[in-house]
Amino acid sequence: MNEQTNVVPAWEQRFRAARVSLPDWADEAPERALYVSNATGTYEVYAWDRATDEHRRVTDRPNGTTDAELSPDGEWIWWFDDTDGDEFGVWRRQPFAGGPDQEAVPGVPAAYEAGLAFGRDGTVVVGTSTDDEGTTLYLRRPGAAEPEVVYHHAEYGGVGDLSHDSSLLAVDHTEHGDAMHGAIRVLRLSDGATVAQLDEVTGRAEPRGVSCLGFAPAAGDTRLLVAHQRTGRWEPMLWDVATGTETELALRDEQGRPFPGDLSAQWRPDARSLLIEHEYEARSELFSYRLETGELTRLDTPRGTVAGATARPDGTVEFLWSSAAEPSAVRSTAGTVVLRAPGPVPPASVPVEDVWVDGPGGRVHALVQRPTGEGPHPTVFEVHGGPTHHDSDSFAAGPAAWLDHGFAVVRVNYRGSTGYGQAWTDALTERVGLIELEDIAAVRDWAVASGLADADRLVLSGGSWGGYLTLLGLGTQPDLWTLGLAAVPVADYLTAYADEMEALKSLDRTLFGGTPEEVPERWHASSPLSYVEQVKAPVYISAGVNDPRCPIRQIDNYVQRLAELGKVHEVYRYDAGHGSLVVDERIKQLRLEIDFVRRHLAPGTVR
Predict the structure, then answer these.
(1) Is the pLDDT of residue 4 over 60?
(2) Is the peptide bond before 387 cis (omega within 30 degrees of 0)?
(3) Residue range 275-289: average pLDDT?
(4) What DSSP string describes 276-336?
(5) 583-600 and 397-404 are packed helices; what angle lies between their axes, rounded to 10 degrees?
(6) Pseudo-torsion of CA 518, 523, 529, 530, nearest 10°?
(7) What is the pTM of this model?
(8) pLDDT at position 132 over 60
(9) Residue 357 CB contacts under 8 Å (≥ 6 apart), including other chains
């Protein structure tokens, strides 16, 4: 609370305001839906009967719940039960109308979650991943007492989709050992035989990834919707796994040109058309595509970011939309707001400006937000995680809070980010961490030279991979940054690899081109711990003690070394995993960061 006015400040209102995810609905019961909301102060799963507009909280756990699925008939809600955010657990289920939880598939051991698929006949496939066993997919047939193993491999993979008649299973996998570029194997469930494979990595000098987007929702239809990178970006195509026929889609914009960004797709319920999402330069837009005619129709969405969309049986499309200035809402192409979160709408924020800066690997796209008043401003460089992700023109309470406190906010879609083509993303494997920081430094130099940023008040900040880049940047670019704020970071890469979940070990082996034993010089060159002696800026670190992605031991190693060297630092550990689902905890963490910055920047910097 503001001690002078006793009014909750706008930045805190944005965190506390209830919000909802895009509702997911049951294939055979479209009036039954699930969504996630923080209405109680913790992100939990809710059931929504759209016919009666009744809402019911499904889960109630101290550290929250977000992973849930509806069975096709809408009778059962499945939710993933881990321990305090460690992501290791089992699926449970409860009736849609409410009732006691039960273990969903007895006999499937606790593991990291690797996908889930339902057949309309009661078939279920559960994907699991463990450090010792790799990937295992379990099949439970209708009426069977015990599940059976239908797929196993030491490399990471997961459930793609079940065909409409439950006869075929598509598996997304990295059996070839390249976690950046997936492949697809299709199994016949009657005997477990492989009936089709799509692998554009093995034996290729320039690997291309493929990913399962779903089987056609029609009886007897063996077409699989697939995403591919054959054109140097993600695009959808149809692959008939029974005949091997591939049909690439000729998707063009209104001027007849190929779309410049990544394209994804999902089936519409009629199986004759697709919902297309185009993602490019931090924004997204939606289209409908008729397969018979090739007609592409733009759907009316505001300028900003679509964080998810779904095509309903009535022909409408529902989507979760926001911009940096406007909070999210679940909207419909019918022109209505589909689902409103209870309570007040969070305060708006500042629109983003697009900035392009020449970097060593090409033009770098940055999103800039300016506070009120004349510059140069104290500036937070908020570095996104992923690493194969990107910052977008979407509403986020964290950057908005820094703007309220008088800071400019700059977000950089460095090499490795998605939405700018495969070559930009795949550059991530070149000097891991270091090339991203080159791009961030180029934007930093522009921000100072343009008069936006005060060179003596620059904060490098980020979470997860962004936290990793923050610590690496403080060590490798010590004269560029005034302060560092690193949340759930990789700090000691070798120890992180030893302790992290198998899916990330697989990704790290791909990024570095081998294990720490095989290419030790690369791991050493990219580990923040290697440069801790060069750190000059005060650094604040927050970490979840149950984090399987950026485990606590490697952070403790880095913090211990900071202490031994007498470096100015503070560390905050909290009882959760890779971030918190509790609103009060998120607010506490930001308050601690603001307080740290207030104490270590020039007096009067923080409003």
Answers:
(1) no
(2) yes
(3) 96
(4) EEEEETTEEEEEEEETTT--EEE----SSEEEEEEE-TTS-EEEEEE-SSS--EEEETTSS
(5) 40
(6) 90
(7) 0.96
(8) yes
(9) 363, 364, 366, 442, 443, 446
